Amino acid sequence: MAQRDLGEYLARISQNKVNRRSFLAASGLVGTSAFLAACSSSGSSGGASAAPAASAAPAASAAPAGDIEDSLFMYNWSEYINPDNIETYKAEFGVNTFQYDIFSNNEELIAKLQGGASGYDIAAPTAEYVPGMVEEGFLAKLDLSRIPNQKYIDPAFLGLDWDPTNEYQLPKDFGTTGILYREKLTGKPVESWRELYDLTLGEFSGKTVFVDSMGDVFVMPLKMLGYSLNSVDKAELEEARKILLDLAPHILSLDSDTYQVKLSSEEAALCLGWTGPLLELRANPDTADTAYSVPTEGSLFWLDTWVMMADAPHPNASYAWLDYIHRPEIQALETEYNGYATPSSEARKLVSQELLDDPAIFPPESVMPLLEGAVDTSGNNQRLDIWAEFKQKIGS
Amino acid sequence: MTATTSPDAHQASTAARGAAARSSGGAEPDVEILDVTKRFGDVVAVDAMHLRIASGSFYSFLGPSGCGKTTTLRMIAGFEQPTAGEILLAGQPIAGVPPYKRNVNTVFQHYALFPHMDVAQNVGYGLRQRKVERTEEQRRVGEALALVRLDGYERRRTWEMSGGQQQRVALARALVNRPTVLLLDEPLGALDLKLRKEMQLELKALQREVGITFVYVTHDQEEALTMSDVIVVMREGRIQQQGGPTELYERPVNRFVADFIGTSNFIPATVVEFDAGTRVAVARTESGLVLRGRITDPEGSLAAGDSVTFATRPERLDVIAAEGAGDAPSGVVQVAGRVRQGTYLGDQTEYRVETEQVGELIVSHQNASGAEGATGVGPGDRVVVRWNEEANLVLAG
Amino acid sequence: MQSGTTRTGAGSDGLGGRIRSALLTFVLILPAGAWYLVLLVAPLVIITIFSFGVRAKNGGYAPAFVLDNYGAILGDLDKAAPFTTSLSMAIAGTIGCLLVGLPLAYFIATRGGSRKGLFILLLVIPFWTSFLIRTYSWLIVLGPENLGGFVGDVIGDDSFRILGTPLAVLIGLVYGYLPLMVFPLYVTLERMDRTLVEASKDLGASRWATFRQVTLPIALPGLITGSILVFIPMMGEYVIPQILGYGRIYLVGNALVTDFLEARNWPAGSAKAVVLIAVMMFTVTFYTWFVNRGRRGREVSVL
């Protein structure tokens, strides 16, 4: 096993893309570096007024109604937009001030909106938070005629529960929750929740990590039992509880931030987690045996979305952005940059085959029907009680 | 003040090892400092010091700061270890014995009273370390406080008390343990002048009463003269002279002692002849004035041509208006001069007289008759200064 | 008559002076007072109000007056577990900080000599880097490849581990908060008159007796301040149990994160926060009373 040193280790922590859903990393390390990056990029933009490139831009997009303002205020996860795309946008549309502020969880975004006028134009909440935001009147109804490029979005991502009429959000990126494992240690593919359950209770007791995220952890027992992962049925949840409490003593760690480190040191062999660190683990010869599977019983797919604020100070620049970002070539650059799957079917054609074939990024067609989107169940007390009980019993 | 000096105290020289050995038949010494040297890095703080401190007496280490007096005290207390030599306490060598096992106690310069304890707790501290029974502790604390006239102050917080009272608490705290030797490190330094004078007398009386050997460190010659049986004058780690106050004042063995204890007029001269029997030297100053006097150092010897210094105390000199002064009688030295300054000090008036023959002389005139200017001279007046040859102290070098 | 006039004049003058001085005092206190009000009192009031509310439909807070949030914590022993775990970890951490910090502060204050500044600097330098990075570093130090594995080898138990155990959390807590213990202790010990120690030895007390009877009581104000400074943040600690405890040590801080960020139930979280504050206030008050008993009318605070 490779001896890790601190530099490599910290670099890994600060570079990993797991931060998209990780409270700690996003609020601390990565948040800082991303913040610095954001500062420097907006700093450089201030000086370089983008006029020359604007005329050279292809006239592909429909002329937006009204003048485009010279500023855009975005509220987003850290390192979630390709900086090159930002520069191009600024040059093309003459937007001099592109402010990129970072939130580390949806709650932070919502809290800011609840505090009154946020001053932001656009944001990227996770889909299950959209209905609540619509209900609170935070979001603008989108005029799709001003976003012609949304036609490239795969119809599979339209009309979903979160926004049945496709009026408040545009899909941004999506991914799955599944099983990360070291094939060298397991000796065989681990492709179902049931297998994960058996291995954790048996041979790999104390070698399984779960991400510290209630919504994702509930996927396992509920899908194992064949229920909806959004179930709030008392009896179903009680069954799920038993499974979770069976597992709790055998779990090494609840960890959303450094689970890739535990996998790479072989302290853990299995992980209920996200795909973020996969590319990096596989790139290292020592951990090239790391694999990811979307369990056969089905799993969760998460979707981050673009929304526009009801009180967006720069609506024209916002529409320009939303249309711009859905250009297939721009979407493809996004995927190459952040390693998350794009819902744009046209952009998929431009993404490298390597990424397309990676089940961790683009779920195979076969599992697509087994995927279920999450709805906001955070108000369900039974789930919360189970979650708290589970957390207290970890490792004991 | 009469000096009740032991034979020890009369040995007057740093080199008087033989005399020390001879005299040890007197009072049993409480502390013996045998050839002790203490170095801090390259600095020699105490240099081959040899001293016996007689039991039951009041010793003072006197000298300017940095003379090694406090270091010596700290070696006796056990806070410092000698670099070389040996210290005996009540006849026993104490090298390697930690401070808390030595039967000596110290009164510190700034009292070092424990701020978190009241007076009784402070005073009883040493007794508690010795596991003295509680009632016994209370009794002895009461006694010690009575001794320093602080009865009834048991429950007071020390920081609420005046400097003098804190001083007494510190004394009581040390004395209550009945140490063989009590060490006092400039304990009166922080008090104002009047209180200091009072405390000096009180300390002396206290020492008589308890009969414990006191070793007192001070840089204040007056303090040392007031209280001590024996004063040990130190300079740069070496003992210059030791003896009773009278002896030190009347017969300083060298210029440093003559200058440090009291005030002296110094007149350099060259020996013309020296009588080893009477120990009287005749010498001539550069201006041709011939002076006669007895050498103070009992060990000292002079030969014609040696440089010497004649020292005289200001109060032994008289100043008289030049007009009608006439010639000096036989055995009296007379030099002419002009008063540069006259300072009225109440009990005395101090004149600074500029002479041609021997430079400036300080003359101290006791205002015994009360009236100011009984001498009838003032600044600018031509005067003669006279003194009896007996007042001449001849110092080698 | 004249003197009467004068007196009246002086009186009104004095009154004016008093008003002016009161006004000046008010103006001078205003910034600190406002700061105190806005940053300390207001949040406290807000969470107290929130703690009686209910969860809004889409998460957050909706006004109400219910006691359910407290009932949920106090009515069920299982749910109070994070509080007892936090309390025991914070107490253990405070004791740990004392055991490490007291000798350290004593050493620097008494033996530091001219290098005191250097020692203090060495103690501070790690704290210029992010708390998170420093905590992550302990993952490596205590990890199975290093200290954890080494100790395992020594005691011949392959399954031995430090990470993910209360010990790891304890080490993290002590490391993370040590300076907050050392500084107040150092200040009191540094200010302490060194001759007091000599006086004690001179009066027959051995080194240990001197430490116990003189140094420790005099360092007590610093000790109390330090203990409180480390105890309070330890009670609310979230990051260290998460990283070094592998999420296996579930403290109030972690429960709060769950409430606010996962359940998005601000009232429930606020109630826990209020209970946490109450527990801390009780503990700190009891502690201060306990160590101060028998000490009369001495000023306590050093900061």
Question: What tags apply to this protein structure?
Answer:
heterotrimer; A: 396 residues; alpha/beta; D-Maltodextrin-Binding Protein, domain 2; 2 domains; six-stranded mixed beta sheet; C: 303 residues; mainly alpha; MetI-like fold; 75% helix; disordered N terminus
Classify the secondary structure makeup of chain B into a structural class: alpha+beta
Tell me the fraction of residues in β-strands of chain C, as a range. under 5%
Average residue-wise pLDDT of chain B: 86
**Which superfamily, in CATH terms, is the homologous superfamily of the largest domain in chain B?**
P-loop containing nucleotide triphosphate hydrolases
User: What assembly state would you assign to the polypeptide chains in this entry?
Assistant: heterotrimer
| Global mean pLDDT of chain C | 85
CATH fold-level assignment of the largest domain in chain C: MetI-like fold
Class from helix and strand fractions of chain C? mainly alpha
| Second CATH tier, the architecture of the largest domain in chain C | Orthogonal Bundle
C-alpha geometry of chain C: globular
Largest sheet of chain C: none
Estimate the helix proportion of chain C, in percent. over 70%
CATH class of the largest domain in chain C: Mainly Alpha
What is the count of structural domains of chain C? 2
Estimate the helix proportion of chain B, in percent. 10-25%
Structure in words:
The complex is a heterotrimer of chains A (396), B (397) and C (303). With 396 residues, chain A is an alpha/beta fold. Chain A folds into 2 domains: 223 residues, Periplasmic binding protein-like II (D-Maltodextrin-Binding Protein, domain 2), CATH 3.40.190.10; 159 residues, Periplasmic binding protein-like II (D-Maltodextrin-Binding Protein, domain 2, 3-Layer(aba) Sandwich), CATH 3.40.190.10. Chain A contains 18 helices and 11 strands. In chain A, the strands form 2 sheets. In chain A, strands 1, 2, 3, 4, 10 and 11 form a 6-stranded mixed beta sheet that branches. In chain A, strand 1, helix 5 and strand 2 form a beta-alpha-beta unit. The longest helix of chain A has 19 residues. Chain B is elongated and about 80 Å long. Chain B folds into 2 domains: 177 residues, Rossmann fold, CATH 3.40.50; 134 residues, Beta Barrel (OB fold (Dihydrolipoamide Acetyltransferase, E2P)), CATH 2.40.50.100. In chain B, the strands form 4 sheets. Chain B has a 6-stranded mixed beta sheet with strand order 6-7-8-3-9-10, with helices on both faces. In chain C, helix 3 packs across helix 9 and helix 11 runs antiparallel to helix 12. Chain C folds into 2 domains: 50 residues; 222 residues, MetI-like (MetI-like fold). At the A-C interface, helix 1, helix 6, helix 7, strand 7 and helix 18 of A face helix 3, helix 5, helix 10 and helix 11 of C.
